[in-house]
């Protein structure tokens, strides 16, 4: 079958296309962007197959996609729930499925998680911008026109005809979240660095692709106003009020607040998938430990996904997922029931 | 002489480090940063992803599964003997309108500096500025070289969005804006230049380290030049 397409329906403001990030142009003021959760992003791509490098990133607003022709998708995102066409029951990411011609994939947030990924086997997102498919939500750089959808090349027959496949979620390192020293670590006294790891910090509702604001024991620096320097993903900057901000994918490439720490890359998804109000704990770890955690995740992602064993989805299961009463989300009002769609019962 | 003489190395997580040549805006530090950036560009060591130069430091981002800080520093040391040829910084003349709506905040800034708007204009136009870094947004250029008499702190609260191409002043720095957004800086002029072209061979018109002198134009001239390709910028011999 040639000429397959995937179209995007409904609200698309918080929907972006991401690849691993835009490299090489930070020196011209261009943000790296890329996925908020590199682990689930990679998992969705590997479930979809086809060797793609870019996927849709969904926020708490969810997303609706429609297949023209048969389209193989991989979906990942902790706590998110999906429905496919008229098929009974909810699909519980991470999973791979083949959408039949005319079928819709609806992905909505559940009781936890902030970001989900929909990867599509053979999708053509068009021309990269500065060598990347990543979208910077703040400046619009790389933003794609969703109107009309995207062409999808035919997937291998074995992938197209395979039954839906549910995988185990990739297990992340457990809390506390690992911290490595940031470039202005020396501007914070030992007692302040210790305090950062000793008390919990609450995630405020000021969270987006640029950064997550935390609230807790104030972190006093010798100065909170430095001459700007470069910022890496996961860097934690501390403005004058002492409340840390974790800088994420769409951060500006440089900034003038001191950076006490950088979140270990393996632990960043744990942080970015936390919802406002969550209590987060941090611990200083060694470079070696950060590398161990990162390599363990990369190795897990390289292995074929482990299947999840579960029977079909009876009504009790759906009720257990709180689908029937409408999905409660912290910052978005969009739910399956709000959209006027009845969950399967 | 080592490229890293006088530098301090700072950690920045597991896949980056910062080479710091000071903690102030200092032309010598800026030149040292540009030399190291050019050296890395020239050597392109295995595993290096990119470098981000600023007024005083260079962020070096690498693939931690392919290299590490020690190997990258060693690559730099080996190259030091080769006398990395640093391209001579370009000198530019850039027309600026410092009147009417293009210079909305010039009176407020002059008040804050205990100058008349005319004095502020003269002092600003007399200066030579260096492109110290890009940051904040694509093509958003920070300029050093602001005279001490023009060093005004940021506004107590942000002002409404300014047009792109504006010249803004605060914190002992000036900047050329490539995005329109609320700012805590003072808008003192407007240029007709486009600071970011993602599709062009040269994404940005100026390199870090280039110098810029401004020359006055009228607002009407600015509007005319904004319809040209280059906004009236000229490279000096």
The secondary-structure element order of chain A is: EEHEEEEEEEEHEEHEEEEEEEHEEHH
Question: Whole-Å distance between the termini of chain A?
Answer: 34 Å
How many β-strand runs of chain B? 12
DSSP strand count of chain A: 21
Shape of chain B: elongated
> What distance separates the N and C termini of chain B?
30 Å
Describe this structure in words.
The complex is a heterodimer of chains A (345) and B (237). Helix content of chain A is 15%, strand content 25%. Chain A has helices spanning 38-48, 157-161, 190-198, 268-272, 287-302, 315-320; strands at 4-9, 16-18, 55-58, 63-68, 71-76, 81-84, 95-99, 104-108, 116-120, 150-152, 165-166, 177-181, 201-207, 211-215, 229-230, 235-237, 245-247, 254-255, 259-263, 279-280, 282-284. An eight-stranded mixed β-sheet of chain A has the order 20-13-14-17-16-19-12-21. Chain A has a six-stranded antiparallel β-sheet with strand order 2-3-9-5-7-11. A five-stranded antiparallel β-sheet of chain A has the order 6-8-4-1-10, with no helix packed on it. In chain A, strand 13 (201-207) and strand 14 (211-215) form a beta hairpin. The two termini of chain A are 34 Å apart. Chain B has 237 residues and is an alpha+beta fold. Chain B contains five helices and twelve strands. In chain B, strand 8 and strand 9 (173-176) form a beta hairpin. In chain B, helix 1 (27-43) crosses helix 2 (69-80) and helix 3 (106-113) packs across helix 4. Chain B is elongated and about 55 Å long. The mean pLDDT of chain B is 92. The chains are: A alpha+beta (345), B alpha+beta (237). At the A-B interface, strand 15, strand 18, strand 19 and helix 5 of A face strand 2, strand 3 and strand 4 of B.
């Amino acid at each position: 079958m040639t000429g397959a397409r995937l179209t995007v329906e409904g609200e698309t403001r918080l929907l972006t296309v991401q690849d691993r990030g835009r490299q090489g142009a930070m020196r011209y003021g261009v943000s790296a962007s890329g996925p908020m959760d590199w682990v689930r992003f990679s998992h969705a791509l590997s479930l979809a197959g086809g060797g793609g490098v870019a996927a849709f990133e969904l926020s708490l607003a969810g997303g609706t996609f429609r297949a023209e022709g048969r389209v193989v998708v991989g979906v990942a995102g902790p706590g998110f729930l999906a429905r496919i066409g008229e098929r009974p029951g909810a699909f519980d990411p991470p999973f791979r499925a083949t959408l039949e011609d005319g079928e819709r994939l609806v992905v909505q947030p559940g009781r936890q998680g902030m970001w989900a990924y929909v990867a599509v086997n053979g999708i053509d997102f068009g021309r990269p911008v500065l060598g990347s498919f990543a979208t910077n939500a703040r400046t619009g750089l790389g933003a794609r026109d969703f109107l009309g959808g995207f062409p999808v090349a035919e997937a291998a027959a074995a992938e197209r005809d395979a039954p839906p496949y549910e995988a185990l979620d990739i297990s992340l390192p457990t809390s506390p979240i690992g911290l490595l020293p940031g470039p202005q670590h020396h501007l914070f006294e030992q007692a302040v660095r210790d305090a950062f790891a000793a008390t919990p910090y609450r995630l405020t509702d000021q969270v987006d692709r640029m950064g997550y604001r935390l609230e807790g024991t104030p972190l006093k620096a010798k100065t909170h106003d430095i001459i700007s320097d470069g910022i890496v993903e996961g860097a934690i900057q501390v403005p004058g009020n002492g409340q840390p901000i974790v800088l994420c994918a769409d951060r500006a490439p440089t900034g003038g607040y001191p950076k006490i720490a950088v979140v270990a890359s393996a632990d960043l998804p744990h942080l970015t998938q936390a919802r406002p109000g969550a209590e987060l704990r941090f611990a200083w770890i060694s470079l070696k430990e950060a590398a161990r955690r990162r390599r363990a995740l990369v190795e897990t992602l390289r292995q074929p996904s482990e299947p999840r064993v579960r029977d079909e989805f009876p009504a009790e299961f759906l009720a257990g997922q709180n689908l029937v009463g409408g999905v409660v989300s912290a910052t978005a009002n969009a739910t399956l029931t709000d959209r006027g769609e009845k969950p399967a019962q | 002489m080592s490229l890293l003489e006088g530098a301090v190395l700072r950690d920045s997580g597991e896949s980056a480090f910062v080479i710091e040549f000071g903690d102030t805006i200092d032309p010598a530090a800026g030149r040292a940063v540009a030399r190291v950036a050019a050296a890395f560009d020239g050597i392109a060591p295995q595993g290096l992803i990119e470098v981000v130069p600023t007024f005083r430091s260079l962020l070096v981002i690498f693939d931690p599964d392919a290299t590490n800080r020690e190997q990258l520093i060693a690559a730099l040391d080996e190259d030091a003997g080769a006398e990395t040829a640093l391209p001579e910084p370009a000198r530019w003349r850039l027309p600026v309108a410092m009147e009417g709506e293009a210079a909305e905040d010039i009176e407020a800034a002059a008040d804050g500096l205990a100058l008349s708007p005319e004095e502020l204009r003269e002092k600003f136009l007399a200066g030579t500025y260096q492109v110290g870094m890009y940051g904040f947004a694509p093509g958003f250029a920070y300029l050093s070289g602001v005279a001490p008499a023009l060093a005004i702190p940021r506004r107590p609260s942000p002002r409404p969005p300014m047009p792109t191409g504006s010249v803004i002043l605060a914190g002992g720095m000036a900047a050329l804006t490539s995005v329109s957004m609320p700012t805590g800086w003072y808008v003192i002029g407007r240029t007709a230049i486009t600071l970011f072209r993602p599709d062009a061979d040269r994404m940005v018109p100026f390199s870090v380290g280039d110098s810029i002198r401004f020359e006055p134009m009228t607002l009407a001239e600015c509007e005319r030049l904004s319809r040209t390709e280059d906004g009236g910028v000229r490279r000096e011999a």
